[in-house]
Amino acid sequence: MNRSVPSFQDVVRSRHSTRGFLPTPIPRGILEEMLREAQYAPSNCNTQPWNVHVVSGKKLQELSAILVDALRAEHYTLDFSFDKNDYPEPYKTRVAEQGGRYYRALGVARGDALSRAEVVERNLRFFGAPHAAFLFLPAVGDNVRVASDVGMYAQTFLLSLAARGYAGVPQAVLGYFADTVRQALGVPDELKLLFGISFGMPDSTHAAFNYREDRIPLEESIVWHE
Ligand SMILES: Cc1cc2nc3c(=O)[nH]c(=O)nc-3n(C[C@H](O)[C@H](O)[C@H](O)COP(=O)(O)O)c2cc1C
Fold first, then answer.
1. What is the average pLDDT score of the chain?
2. Domain at 53, CATH number
3. Best mutation site among 78, 169, 173, 177 for ligand 1, i.e. most ligand atoms within 8 A of its Cβ?
4. Residue 6 within a domain
5. Which candidate among 77, 147, 178, 205 keeps its CA 20 to 30 Å from the CA of 195?
6. How far is ligand 1, taken at its centre, from the CA of residue 9, in Å?
7. Closest residue (by CA) to atom 9 of ligand 1?
8. Which domain holds residue 143?
9. DSSP letter assigned to residue 141
10. Is 163 within a domain?
C-alpha cells in the first residue's frame, strides 16, 4: 500500500474533536502502534504516570449503559473538580462562545433543555465510537504535574489518531463518574480519573462533522521578551 505520509503541520491542523463516529473498530495492531507512539510523550522525571484503560466492543456498550444510568441518577463522583463557572475572563467568554457554536452546529436551540441533556448523554454513548480510553493517574501532591504529563500523553495519542485519518474527542464529562468507571473496570481507588477519549473513524454524515473551533491570535497568548 502506498499511503502518503501527512506533514506534521497537516496532522496538527487536521486534528479536531470529533463527535460522531462509525462503529467499525480500529484493527488491534494499529491501535497498539498509536498507543506506543503516545508513550513517547514527555513527563516529569520520565515518570510516565499514565494508566490507560482502553474499552471496546460489548464491554463499551455495557459501560455506556451504566454511565447513562449514573447520569440519570445524578450520581456524580469527580476525582478532580470542574465547574465552568469558575473560569475568570477572558476564559469565561470563550466557554460560553464555544458552547454556543457547538449547539448551533448541532441545531439545538438555546432554551432547549431536553436536547441539551441529550447532547450530554451522547458523551456517555461515546458519540458512537468503537473505543474509549480512560486516563487514570496516581495521586501525587496537588496532582497538577501528573495531570500535565497525562495531558501531553493525550495530545500525542490524538495526533497519532489524526495522522492515520482516525479521530478522537477528549471528554471531561467521562470523569464525572469516576467511581462508576473504576467499579465497572476493576480499577483500584488509588488511580484517579482525569478524563476519557472516545475515538475511531469519523462519521462524515454526522450533523457536526464540519464543526471546527478556531484559535485566538498569537498576540493573545504570547509575550515576547528579548
Ligand atoms: C481535557 C478536555 C476535556 C474536554 N471535555 C469535553 C467533553 O466532555 N465533551 C466534549 O464534547 N468535548 C470536550 N472537550 C473538547 C473541547 O471542547 C475541544 O477540544 C475544544 O473546543 C477545541 O476544539 P478542537 O478539539 O476541535 O480543536 C474537551 C477537551 C479537553 C482538552
1. 95
2. 3.40.109.10
3. 169
4. no
5. 205
6. 20
7. 171
8. 14-207
9. T
10. yes
- CA–centroid distance, 75 to ligand 1, in Å, is 22
213 Cβ inside 6 Å of ligand 1: yes
Distance separating the N- and C-terminal Cα atoms of the chain:
49
> Does residue 17 line the site of ligand 1, with CB under 6 A?
yes
pLDDT one-digit tens code per residue, 135-161: 999 999 999 999 999 999 999 999 999
Residue 31 lies in a domain: yes
The rounded radius of gyration (Å) of the Cα atoms in the chain is 18
**C-alpha distance from residue 182 to each of 61, 77, 164 (Å):** 16, 11, 30
Q: Residue 184: CB partners within 8 Å, gap ≥ 6?
A: 62, 63, 66
Give percent of the chain with pLDDT exceeding 70. 99
Looking at the domain assignment, is residue 214 inside a domain?
A: no
Q: What are phi and psi of 85, to 5 degrees?
A: -70, -15
Would the CB of 16 count as within 6 Å of ligand 1?
yes
Residue with cell 521578551: 225
Number of neighbouring beta carbons within 10 Å of residue 151:
16
Q: Is the pTM of this model over 0.85?
A: yes
